Amino acid sequence: MAEFDRGVRLGVDVGQVRVGVSRSDPHGILATPLVTLARDLTAEPDTVPADMAELVRLAAEHEAVGIVVGLPVNLAGKHGPAAVNVSAYATRLADVMGPIPVTLTDERMSTVVASRRLAERGVRGKRQRAVVDQAAAVEILQSWLDAQRRRTDDRRS
Fold it and tell me: Are the beta carbons of 14 and 28 closer than 8 angstroms?
């Protein structure tokens, strides 16, 4: 990628129960919260889970050019059970997204950082649980966007 491709990206934080979703502006500068989806764990293997179908719909609605999924690598940089689960989710999502690329990115500590930031703003308890997945998705996407911009800036220097 010689230049950062313009266009909206969706950030995805995959949890056991919920999927947080964020979106970027078309310039790739700022990630904002979008929605929290319930994980569809009851879908038959030959059908698209409802949460993935909704991600496809959101990608079309926002004319997304890419999906960035947070990979929960542990602090030692290893892929534990959560990372294996998210990798499988991302692979399945890539199958249903069609031509829109799905990218995995290291999301170490995104939920912890998101929870801390929400608490600093006075959002706690049930209110925090309702939005922490979206906030984690924002952390994931913002980190990815910042890294892409740094790479583009480094190439220009």
Answer: no
Question: CB neighbours (10 Å) of residue 66?
Answer: 20
pLDDT digits (tens, 9 = 90+) for 95-116: 999 999 999 998 865 666 666 7
Q: What CA–CA distance (Å, rounded) separates 115 from 112?
A: 5
At residue 69 the predicted structure's pLDDT band, cuts being 50, 70 and 90, is very high
Instruction: Give the number of other CB atoms < 10 A from CB of residue 127.
Output: 11
Q: Is the distance from CB of 93 to CB of 69 less than 8 angstroms?
A: yes
Neighbours of 22 (CB within 10 A): 26
Instruction: Look at the block and give the residue holding tokens 């964020």.
Output: 22
98 backbone φψ class: left, alpha, beta (φ>0; ψ -120 to 50): left
What is the pTM (predicted TM-score) of this model?
0.85
